[in-house]
Write a structure and sequence with these properties.
The chain has 192 residues and is of the alpha+beta class. It contains 6 helices and 8 strands. The termini are far apart.
């Protein structure tokens, strides 16, 4: 049995039984084989979208991103149960109080409707079900926040559709395609 089969079996039966749907599971990046993680980043590089996920890096390289991402804590993939391949990725960082910054990307062959579904439902699960996953008595996170390059209009529209609301603009707050850009500061809050 390969590592992903073992992980999928464990996830389905016990440990992380919180799927986005019956077809998708959220798993820590360390649960996947390095080749699966690298396959995902290579696909983004081939579609010329790696630069959007790693906008602070002038020319991100798929192999460097894959190696870094594989060992980064609080990094997860949404896995298609049928193919056992990652189709979306997210990372949580910069925790403060009961908030965390979220970064996410979608596999370039996903239909827009699937990417929107995955992003919306995964962020909802993080906010509403994280306590169950981590066996906590109460919610761990009340707010997710994002910093999106203002010039990346596709990403700005995408995050609004996923349920993030704009708080403001941070002048010169991020990079986009190797240049300093203003950043949209957005949040998504837990519903309860």
């Amino acid at each position: 049995m390969d590592k992903m089969s073992e992980v999928t079996d464990v996830l389905v039966s016990e440990l992380y039984k919180w799927g986005v749907s019956d077809s998708y599971l959220v798993v820590p990046s360390s649960s996947l084989e390095r080749e699966q993680v690298q396959w995902y980043w290579n696909a983004l590089a081939e579609a010329d979208t790696l630069q959007y996920r790693w906008s602070d890096v002038v020319e991100p390289k798929a192999d460097e991103v894959g190696a870094l991402h594989y060992v980064t804590p609080n990094t997860y993939f949404v896995v298609d149960v049928a193919t056992r391949l990652p189709i979306a990725e997210f990372a949580l960082c910069n925790f403060t109080g009961k908030a965390a910054q979220v970064h996410f990307s979608m596999h370039p062959v996903n239909p827009t409707s699937v990417s929107l579904f995955l992003a919306e439902h995964t962020t909802n699960l993080i906010l509403n079900n994280w306590a169950e996953v981590e066996n906590l008595e109460k919610s761990y996170l009340d707010t997710l926040y994002g910093v999106t390059p203002k010039k990346n209009r596709v990403a700005c529209l995408f995050i609004r559709k996923v349920g993030f609301t704009q708080l403001g603009v941070i002048p010169s707050g991020t990079m986009f395609k190797g240049e300093v850009d203003d950043a949209l500061l957005t949040i998504k809050e837990r519903l309860n």
